[in-house]
Amino acid sequence: MNRIFDLAISLYERKGERPGGCFIVTAASLETTDDPEISSVLSAFYHDIDQALTDCLEESRPRGLPKRVSRDLALVTATVIFSLAIRARAGASAQELRAIALGHMTFLKYRLGDAELTRSR
């Protein structure tokens, strides 16, 4: 999970004058109420992200962790990643984004009792 957050944060960091964050999450979502095509593309994007995270978590699911938890974890993790995109767009630093990601992983570790979630890269 560290790798997932590291990748997202590296993509969201401000580089030069360009705004940070994810264009799809921060800009396209504003147009969904007026444009069904954008809404459809955004919905497919979210579905693809959810599925990719589910697949990733399934592959690394510790023994004893119920399979459905992987899907639940993926949805919550995707929500945190999208929040990071919005915060990056608003000017949050990579350090601030990493603190949020660490808080999420710490919470999951506490709730699941799973040291595997934060294993080293």
CA-based shape: flat
The mean pLDDT is 80
**Low-confidence region ranges:** none
Q: How many beta strands in the DSSP annotation?
A: 0
End-to-end distance, in Å?
A: 9 Å
User: Oligomeric status of the shown chains?
Assistant: single chain
Helices and strands, in order, run as HHHHH
Kindly give the count of domains. 1
Which structural class matches the secondary elements?
mainly alpha
Largest sheet: none
The share of residues in extended strands comes to under 5%
| Tally of helical runs | 5
Query: Helix content range of the residues, please?
Result: over 70%
* Alpha-carbon Rg, integer: 15 Å
Outline the structure in words.
- The longest helix is centred in the middle third of the chain and has 24 residues.
- The chain is mainly alpha-helical and 121 residues long.
- It has one domain.
- It has 5 helices and no strands.
- The termini are close together.
